[in-house]
Write the structure tokens for this entry.
Amino acid sequence: MKVRISATIDKETLKIVKEFLEKGTYRNKSHVIEEAIKSLKRKK
């Protein structure tokens, strides 16, 4: 089950997210954020 959250990011970070979406690497902004968090967890 997915849970809706809200996040505030700076313009530079949003630019990076949009670049990922334009390349087709991720489905949507939520997918980018979810995968980034999973990546951070794997690194710890």
